[in-house]
Model the fold of this input.
Amino acid sequence: MKPIDLLIGRPTPNLQAADKLAAASQIILSQPEKSGMALTYGPDHGEDGIREHIGDWLSQKYRPVSGRITRDRIIITNGASGALAGILQKFADPSYTRRVFLVEPTYFLAVQTFLDAGFGQRMRGIPEDDEGINLEYLRRQLEEDSRTDDGILNTGVPRTKFPAQGYRKIYKYILYVVPTLSNPSGKTMSIHHRTALVELARQYDILLIADDVYDFLAWPADDGISHEGLELPPRLVDIDRQMAGSSEWGNTVSNGSFSKLAAPGLRVGWCEAMPNFIHGLSTVGATMSGGCQAQYTSFLIDEMLVSGILEHHIQNTLIPVYRRRYRALVEAIKTYLYPLGIRISTGKPYETFAMDDASNRVPTILSGGFFLYIDFPRGNQFPSATEIIRIGREEFGLTIAPGEIFAVKGDPESLKRAQSTFNLGTRLCWAWNEEAVLIEAIKRLAKAVQRAQELRS
Ligand SMILES: Cc1ncc(COP(=O)(O)O)c(C=O)c1O
Done:
């Protein structure tokens, strides 16, 4: 039996745009003027022209109410992972930043970066609700914390980062979230929650770090409606810009990536935030020494952006392929897992608009990304997730994510909550496996559940 991996969350190799990247490389490397720039140390923010093109492209995609996204709001990064580390180096300090909140279930690979930055014991999970984040829970945490705040931030750690050394802004709190088509839950945060979150961030001096890495892999839930013309949710950074009273640093940074849109191995992405914030981020030590963290690959992306090839790849290859796989996966879950009481948990559907064939603006539900979450029935009658995963692995060659990996390490309450919530289910990914394999995987999962049920009875 051929093993199937449902844990792996990356694109199939044939979706990695190798041919388009080869063509872009050929163009860059065969023109001495371009290759000279692409192959040397780049400016710390990345080339101005490329920042400008990314800003224009984002403006077209998000259509922000506050207008065009200018290049001073953009820095080129080596992907969302590297950018997260840089943001923490520059804008957080364990001697001052009181807590790091992570919306749970959380993107488990981000957790190590917070541990690296010294926040081990001060990380707290904030549960999702149906609209993306349990705001009341967050508010309570902040209020409790403020009661112990006598104005002197006594974290027990000596201060290490000072304004005179270039750390002009350190936030009191950090909150990490994937607001749109989340990894792992697949949920999209409502506009109400987005706005309330930005308001809270301003009130309590929180930096909201939003991994906006799946936004452009979105499509309407209705099969009959084209994905082109789908209106995307405003990012937290858009709301922070448009709401009166933004500070000079802002309270949000949008962490974007070309990993899912071109290829993860390129290690290139961007951040968007207030110009002061972006400038601060460009002064991370590694960047000041090495220059733009993705100089060559940002030239490749730029070539594909300006020619329209990247957008074509997203609209005509990636989205149609992922949409078909998603549909196949959902159908298989309904056929084989629903009869066992297992359900897809999507949270409150995010209502938006798209264009129908006659160019009318029609309401629809946002769908997309890489992942969905399934919930197992609660109660003692149903076998445990651990048992299902073990049988899946040992008898059916199936690798499934244990829900508990999405708990926030360093917060014992998070793991406790997981046992009665997201550990009673699992994340499924459609980016890696093709349709036939996904269907086979769900059939095997159903068999693993039935086998676990037999063993119990
Ligand atoms: C939410 C989230 N953030 C960041 C990343 C990694 O992004 P990058 O390849 O740009 O470092 C991933 C990849 O799976 C992800 O799901």
